[in-house]
Design goal:
194 residues; single chain; Rossmann fold; 6-stranded parallel beta sheet; alpha/beta
């Protein structure tokens, strides 16, 4: 059943203006104009982010929706996929978000607009911990693009978190997946957009 609704989730300190989000938006608009595309700006609070997402997709048909998530967005995408049963594409997904972001408590500049500031509060680490899921239930619903050269997240943890999932493991690459255009075709094919 073709995907008619697509959710894209950016990473920590990122935005809908990220390179990958803009490339995905353009590809969907050009090749699949009938698809309902949503790429929201996520708040720093993980609980608020998931609440916003659940409200936004409440009327979406679970069997015809999919989610793409990058880094922390990949962590959130796993939550959405496990909650709804939808397909998910994970781009260098955060696996141990609470552990990895515990050192990020404080105020930060946004990547795409340093004038914008965000505050990552101590309680957000607990919110991430509360969102952690057990083993994924249906590996066939997932496709991962993960880079051994990721300078932020460990590829062994990423691949180990998703046993049985179809993973395109890049021998080099980086956390941002600067070569995302090289993988966009496979991502779109997996999503089976209407």
């Amino acid at each position: 059943m073709a995907t008619t609704h697509l959710l894209y989730l950016h990473g920590f300190r990122s935005s809908p203006q990220s390179f990958k989000a803009r490339r995905m938006a353009a590809a969907v608009r050009e090749r699949h104009p009938a698809v309902n595309w949503w790429c929201p700006q996520l708040p720093p609070s993980p609980a608020a982010a998931l609440a916003q997402l659940r409200e936004g997709i409440a009327d979406w048909p679970a069997q015809r929706m999919a989610v793409v998530g990058s880094s922390l967005g990949g962590f959130y995408a796993t939550c959405i996929a496990e909650d709804t049963g939808c397909r998910a594409v994970l781009l260098n997904p955060a696996v141990h978000a609470a552990r990895d972001l515990a050192c990020q408590v404080g105020e930060h500049a946004a990547w795409h607009d340093p004038a914008q500031r965000l505050v990552f509060a101590p309680e957000y680490v607990d919110e991430l911990r509360a969102l952690e899921r057990g083993p994924i239930t249906r590996p066939e619903r997932y496709f991962g693009v993960m880079a051994k050269g990721d300078e932020v997240l460990g590829w062994r943890e990423m691949t180990g978190r998703y046993p049985g999932v179809r993973i395109k493991l890049l021998q080099e690459g980086d956390h941002a997946l600067s070569d995302f255009d090289d993988h966009l075709g496979e991502v779109l094919a997996f999503l089976d957009l209407a």
